[in-house]
Design brief:
Elements lengths: L1 E5 L6 H10 L7 E5 L1 H4 L13 H9 L9 E3 L7 H4 E3 L11 E5 L13 E4 L1 H14 L2 H8 L9 E4 L8 E4 L3 E3 L5 E3 L5 H12 L1 H9 L12 H6 L9 H17 L13 H8 L3 H23 L5 H7 L27 H12 L6 H4 L34 E4 L7 H12 L7 H7 L1 H8 L1 E2 L2 E2 L3 E5 L6 E5 L7 H27 L6 H27 L11 H5 L10 H15 L7 H6 L1 H8 L3 H6 L3 H4 E3 L9 E3 L7 H7 L3 H11 L9 E2 L5 E2 L1
Parallel strand pairs: 5-9
Antiparallel strand pairs: 1-2, 3-10, 4-6, 5-6, 7-8, 7-10, 11-15, 12-13, 14-15, 16-17, 18-19
Helix pairs in contact: 7-10, 10-12, 14-16, 19-20, 24-27
């Protein structure tokens, strides 16, 4: 036996240790007697001297996780998230073939967490696999693809680097990542997965797992190997513990029913409580009770005494270095479930105005959708949205900030609020014009991606705005903005300016002169706004596969009211011009003479632009079977492909967009001789 002294609370550790060696007893020191051979049972042989004997003996008494036939393994690491990943709401609605969900780690959450990322996986991930094969060495590429056959299966996932270990459901039709590994069971039944989820989230399993991580160099990195080596009891019946896991999953998912960006969103807090009776505090209490029941049942299955885990929780060694930064530290999520919010309600009103969210859930014309199964594929639309084919016949795709206009956003939002009997602030119009867009961008940002679905195009002062809805985009939308909204608005305000000028011809008061100056400024802003819309409309050709920010980039001059967002759009536009994102459909649309030749040298680009078979051929014989190589003679010439993708109108518009607009103010010359307005 070996004696260990724990000196955490001793003020003078050196003096205390010296006195203990002479007489091993002290009020503020914990003394442990441990057989070193017992500690060696723990994989990695950490010096976990504080561990209860029952926990240590579990490593020899019970089979390890991997020896039960269960599987734990890592998946893809894209190394180019901007190209291959999207937030789920920025892809096309109802497009299940091109995009799979991606479990990428993130905040450690037990039982349920929304899969908010999507990975481009058309053709079984052909574009990604072709790109990655040229990037990684053979050993790394083999590690990425070795679990490929398991992509798309329902399973479990967790965050590999986080402050705590938490396992949650992985729906079908998903890919799992390097930092979001996956777990599968031998039978892959719903009960076997739920039972495993409950067991791994139990205090007993987590204590046994963390005993292996006591060494400083392992800290809080929950690697697949450590999970696989953790002992687990046999489950004579999965039904009982699986039922608890299902309850915990449903209770956790209910939190997300007020989160607008979640697949589980139903209604904002105030309306959700009214319609469904959902209450955050009661829901959390229920979850605590279920988790307590799971802990008790797991301790029973492990045959641990009642006080073992309690003692273990209070005697953790300070040698366990905690990683205080979750992998999701950068995951901004301003839509946390909980108390009803003014902003959340207003955002929902905007969504209803655009025909995105279903008003019938509040009026009672549509029943509350039933809860899905934990491993069902992620829905293309949240329960709070209109089901496919049931959208309002006359839903708008363009709304404006223009009091008195039939498509005025503020007026529509107020009318909806009155219909569902909720109060809105008196300054809603001002709030929508000035504050909603920055809030919306923050709300629809995660994993270092910004993907707003409502786009505010505005004059420089924000005195007039046009709002577009991402999932209603069309190629001619900006022409409609130009002809149906901005041009008539400008004509109206010009007539008003003429009237004011005429009225004040024979003299005017200070107040009248101020009114006239404001009207002149508005007309000038509208003229500049209209000119910019005219400049960009001929070349705008939205493709949601490119992602929000690339589609928005050519419009960067149309968001002067939001300087930080404009700066990001301008940076993306500059990168597009420089050829950094030639995988994007927009790049092919604007610069086919640059992109097409690259497709002949980069198969992943050829796949992205649908010309793989023109430049590449798959081997069929011997060692070359299944391998792709460039054709010695393409089936079509580069010049021919460039010509059919080149539009004189687009090229003329692009030239106009690249040239700085004329300004009435002084201009400054940069060092390169360019003119900056």
């Amino acid at each position: 036996m070996t004696t260990f002294f724990r000196l955490n609370s001793a003020e003078d550790k050196g003096a205390t240790l010296k006195s203990l060696c002479a007489a091993p007893t002290a009020d503020d020191v914990v003394v442990f007697e441990r057989a070193v051979d017992d500690l060696l049972r723990i994989p990695g042989a950490p010096l976990a001297y504080w561990a209860a004997s029952e926990l240590v003996r579990a490593f020899g008494r019970l089979p390890s996780f991997e020896k039960t036939g269960r599987f734990a393994g890592q998946g893809v690491a894209t190394a180019d998230n901007f190209r291959f990943l999207r937030l789920h709401w920025e892809t096309r609605l109802d497009d299940r073939e091109s995009w799979f969900g991606l479990a990428k780690g993130g905040t450690a959450t037990a039982f349920y967490a929304d899969i908010y990322l999507s990975i481009r996986w058309v053709g079984d991930g052909a574009e990604f696999k072709s790109w990655a094969e040229t990037l990684y060495d053979n050993s790394h590429w083999s590690r990425i693809t070795m679990n490929y056959s398991k992509y798309g299966l329902g399973g479990l996932t967790w965050s590999r680097r986080a402050t705590n270990f938490a396992v949650r459901a992985l729906p079908e039709h998903c890919v799992f990542g390097d930092k979001g590994p996956a777990i599968f069971t031998p039978t892959q039944t719903v009960d076997s997965l739920l039972a495993t989820c409950a067991l791994l989230n139990s205090r007993a399993f987590v204590r046994l797992l963390e005993l292996q991580l006591a060494r400083l160099d392992l800290a809080k990195s929950y690697e697949t190997g450590a999970v696989s080596r953790t002992p687990v009891p046999e489950l004579e019946s999965e039904e009982r513990i699986a039922a608890l896991a299902r309850s915990a999953w449903g209770t956790s998912r209910r939190r997300d029913s007020t989160n607008e960006t979640s697949h589980a969103f139903l209604l904002p807090g105030q309306l959700n409580e009214r319609v469904t009776g959902y209450q955050f505090v009661a829901n959390e209490q229920r979850l605590t009770e279920v988790r307590g029941a799971i802990d008790a049942l797991a301790a029973e299955l492990y045959a641990f005494k009642d006080d073992v885990l309690v003692e273990e929780a209070s005697s953790q060694s300070d040698s366990e270095s905690k990683n205080d930064t979750d992998e999701a530290a950068d995951e901004e999520d301003s839509t946390a479930a909980g108390e009803p919010s003014f902003e959340g309600l207003n955002s929902w009103l905007v969504g209803v105005a655009f025909g995105r969210f279903d008003l019938r859930l509040v009026t009672g014309e549509r029943g509350i959708p039933s809860e899905p199964e934990p491993f069902d594929p992620l829905p293309s639309r949240s329960p709070g949205m209109y089901p496919e084919g049931e959208e309002p016949a006359e839903r708008p795709d363009i709304l404006v900030d223009d009091e008195g206009h039939a498509d005025d956003l503020a007026a529509r939002a107020i009318a909806i609020a009155e219909r569902v009997k909720v109060d809105v602030a008196e300054n809603l119009r001002v709030w929508l014009a000035k504050e909603f867009s920055p809030l919306h961008i923050k709300m629809y940002s995660k994993s270092r991606r910004k993907a707003p679905i409502y786009w505010q195009l505005a004059t420089s002062s924000g005195s007039y705005s046009v709002w577009l809805y991402l999932h209603a985009f069309s190629k001619d939308m900006l022409f409609r903005v130009q002809n149906d909204y901005v041009a008539p608005k400008l004509a109206h305000e010009e007539r008003r300016l003429e009237s004011l000028t005429s009225e004040q011809r024979d003299g005017a008061t200070a107040a009248q002169r101020k009114q006239l100056a404001a009207q002149e400024a508005l007309v000038e802003e509208l003229r500049a706004f209209l000119e910019e819309v005219k400049r960009v409309a001929p070349l705008w050709n939205p493709n949601l596969d490119d992602g929000v920010i690339i589609n928005f980039a050519p419009l960067w001059r149309l968001v002067p009211q939001n300087k930080s967002w404009q700066k990001e759009l301008k940076s993306t536009w500059d990168a597009l011009c420089e050829g950094k994102y030639d995988w994007a459909h927009l790049s092919m649309h604007l610069w086919p003479e640059r992109v097409v030749p690259k497709c002949a040298k980069d198969r992943s680009l050829a796949i992205a632009h649908g010309v793989e078979e023109v430049f590449w051929v798959e081997g069929t014989d011997g060692k070359e079977a299944g391998k792709w190589s460039s054709r010695q003679t393409p089936t079509r010439s580069v010049d021919e492909l460039v010509r059919e993708r080149t539009s004189p109108a687009v090229k003329a518009a692009l030239k106009g967009l690249l040239e700085p607009p004329a300004t009435s103010g002084a201009a400054k010359k940069t060092r390169r001789g360019r003119t900056n307005a």
